[in-house]
């Protein structure tokens, strides 16, 4: 079981901030491919991967980051702190 | 208390004094405070700041420790608010202390460059027309790249 | 009160707050405070700061106005003490305010670079061995030259 | 009549912080040449001109700065503010 979290406009578009999925995805990119199949809102949110950042177990990662042992994957737009 | 993440407002002078009072041997103390600006074209009703509890603390501590090691800082502090703010309110603050002014300045600039693009905060501007997520700026990525050269 | 030259000690947090409270429209506030350091090899009994009353005010106002014009600052402040100080005491402080962080940082660095070598202050370290005038550093002249390039 | 002021180690070496001289010097360099003739302390203080800075009527100047209309000339070491 993998926790997935969404922040900012991804959270708003999907209407959810957190969900738990059963997955055999080995990388972030595998997971994105699965999520895209969950419905139109997901297809729209994950249409442009250049606009999305990811954290695996609260560390910034990339599309090729392995997630087989991960507990949590978070998707969000480029950060705007400061 | 080198990293503070809070919803409440803060007193920047008090934060600076408490930071400076703890120091020993510093010759230079730099502070940066970020303030919510009004938008040029319309009234800003509020600035909403979302963050990723847990990851935010980890990210800020890592950025703070990197800056301390890289610029030989005697101490460094990051304070960042989340929640709903209005124009004129202070959003965040960093402070650095070093033997010499160059390290204190460079350390503070480094902290800000990383906070802008590598700490999990997202800003949303609320106006009478609705909400708009603030977009990341290419110039902020460019600012980050300077630190990996030379 | 954009330039303050005084013998008395000051509260850096209070100076920062008073500076920030007067601002309108700023997004970024930077402060720098300089603190008397102990000497590595011997005990510093005191740091005596001599200045040139009259010329000091003129020089600081000119440096402050140059920084404001050059970096589009919303406001800038210089405070500098003279007289006898001891280790750990704050000698001086600058504060800058701008729309964006880069201008606020650059403005503060510029103020410090000019204060170091172009404002008529002279420091003398007093130790048990006697007094020693602090010598100007070549690196401070080098820092100034950066601003005349490009 | 011209006011001359000395600061920091120049003041200490000469044992004076201010004096008034009658001079026909047209530039700072002319004035320095005259002052050097006032005695050993002056000769020592003005031996290395690279180690001295000058302000004419409270504006930083150089050895070639004209002083015919000046009221005050100040000599001091390189400044160490901040």
List the helices and strands and how they pair.
The complex is a heterotetramer, with 2 copies of chain A (about 80 residues) and 2 copies of chain B (about 150 residues).
Chain A: E1 2-6, H1 8-14, E2 18-21, H2 28-36, H3 40-45, E3 53-56, E4 59-61, E5 72-76
Parallel strand pairs in A: 1-5
Antiparallel strand pairs in A: 1-2, 3-4, 3-5
Chain B: E1 3-6, H1 12-21, E2 28-35, E3 46-51, H2 55-70, E4 75-81, E5 83-85, E6 90-98, H3 101-118, E7 121-127, E8 130-133, H4 138-146
Parallel strand pairs in B: 1-4
Antiparallel strand pairs in B: 2-6, 3-5, 3-7, 4-6, 7-8
Global geometry of chain B: globular
Strand residue percentage of chain B = 25-35%
Count of helices of chain A? 3
The average pLDDT of chain A is 96
**What is the H/E string of chain B?**
EHEEHEEEHEEH
Given the helix and strand composition of chain A, which structural class is it? alpha+beta
Poorly predicted ranges of chain A (pLDDT <50, ≥5 residues)? none
User: Low-confidence spans of chain B: pLDDT under 50, at least 5 residues?
Assistant: none
User: Which strand order do you get reading across the main beta sheet of chain B?
Assistant: 1-4-6-2
Distance between the termini of chain B: 32 Å
Which two chains form the greatest contact, residue counts included? B-C, 33 and 33 residues
Provide the β-strand percentage band of chain A: 25-35%
Give helix % range of chain B. Answer: 25-40%
Classification by helices and strands of chain B: alpha+beta
Compute the separation of the termini of chain A in Å. 34 Å
What share of residues of chain A is helical?
Answer: 25-40%
Task: Provide the gyration radius of chain A in Å.
Answer: 12 Å
Element-by-element helix/strand order of chain A: EHEHHEEE
List how many beta strands of chain B DSSP finds: 8
